[in-house]
Amino acid sequence: MKTLTIIILLNLLAITSARSQDISGHWNGTTKRGDKEITFVFNIKQENATYSTTMDVPTFRIAGIKPSATTFTNGKLIIDGSNVGMNYTGVFNTEAQQFEGIYKEGGIEMVINLKKGTIKIEDSKRPQEPVKPYPYYEEEVIFKNNEANITLAGTLTLPNKNGKFPVVILISGSGPQDRDESFMGHKPFLVLSDYLTRQGIGVLRFDDRGVGESTGNFGKATTEDFSKDVLSAIAYLKTRNDVDIKNIGLIGHSEGGIIAPLAANNSKDVAFMVLLASTGISGTELSVMQSKILREFPVKDEVAYEKNTRKAIAIVISNKGESEIKKELTKHYNDFLRPILTSLNVPEKNINTFIESQLKTSLQPWSRYFLQYNPADEIEKLKIPVLSLNGSKDTQVNAKINQEGIRNALIKGKNKDYKIVELENLNHFFQECETGKMDEYRKIEQTFSPTALNEIKNWVIGHLK
């Protein structure tokens, strides 16, 4: 009995220690995904009895992700980032002085042990990124989306502190993005804004809602909601004396290219538009295409796989209640995906995680909106000048198929001023590349092809009023 009492006392001491421990501060951990080491940093803050967290991924130079909730009870830390598609659950090990847990994102599970303290990651060489002091004016700005009751934070760069200048608003692609659109170790919007500002064109770029210094819940927002954030940015620019309000333009990358037409069609203040790697087909058709190209497992029958993918989409966009949709979708994923993954000897636990992730993603407001949205409908309404650029080696958004959709919509809408260019050997982020596959992005030193930058600059300058 003495031994049992000692064990119980030790356990109680461990729990008490974990309870009373101040977990405020930076916690970092490294995990492996394939042959790549990925470092995560969680900055935990405590105010009274409430915790909040911001997440950085220095490996990919991503910072300021804001999970929706953080709890710490009896030595167990839960960082709930369902709003941004992630979750971390860890238990504090008093002997090792670290949280030992699992990080989940999408269908991926990774073991991450978090130790207190900061960590420095050596940056890859990115020669196009500007170094301060810049030869132009830069200002940190804040503006409100009153309808959503959120505050958006960004950076405005102008050729000079004095004067009145044309300004473009940069609109980021899908997923929670900061103002630089940081991804895979690159900052394409930082490079683009620097280049354009040096050419006499002002640029406003801002953190997505719920990211960096912006407030709001990213996970509950749709493409339409993001277009209203852009409208708030336009309204803000109109309040400034240093902005030429007759020359406000939109430049949207990837999903930003389908947000831009929505915003422009609800504003009289957009003078021109640039679509970068934008889609011109419905969300349903794009999702079907991407489900074949981007999936990480082989299938024996592609026809059956597409048929089942379309059935899943039909369930998601049906008019039934969420509980009914979830029930039908759960059954369909178990009937459709489980046998495929089982035949590939994927562990049962991993299959369950993957299906759970698919369900969460499918039921998000963003997914349900996106699958029913056809950007061609909005592009057809555009009466302003439009430039569309896509890379020939883009594996996420097929250039030919999507530019055909964009071209047909502009012709149908009788737009009199547009230019559509497929740029050779460029990927989804307009880097000169070999394969165009996603795992290549980080390895490439170049952030933004000079050819693409020049196309954008020449076209914008040629269309200023």
Structural description of this entry:
This protein has 465 residues and is an alpha/beta fold. The chain has 3 domains: 25-116, Lipocalin, CATH 2.40.128; 137-281 and 374-463, Alpha/Beta hydrolase fold, catalytic domain (Rossmann fold, 3-Layer(aba) Sandwich), CATH 3.40.50.1820; 284-370, no CATH class. The chain has 12 helices and 17 strands. A 9-stranded antiparallel beta sheet has the order 4-3-2-1-9-8-7-6-5. Strands 10-11-13-12-14-15-16-17 form an 8-stranded mixed beta sheet, with helices on both faces. Helix 3 packs across helix 4 (256-264), helix 5 (283-293) packs across helix 6 (302-316) and helix 6 (302-316) packs antiparallel against helix 7 (322-343). The radius of gyration is 24 Å and the shape is globular. The N and C termini lie far apart (88 Å).
Summarize the structure.
This protein is of the alpha/beta class.
Summarize this structure as a short list of keywords or feature phrases:
465 residues, alpha/beta, Lipocalin, Rossmann fold, 8-stranded mixed β-sheet, 12 helices
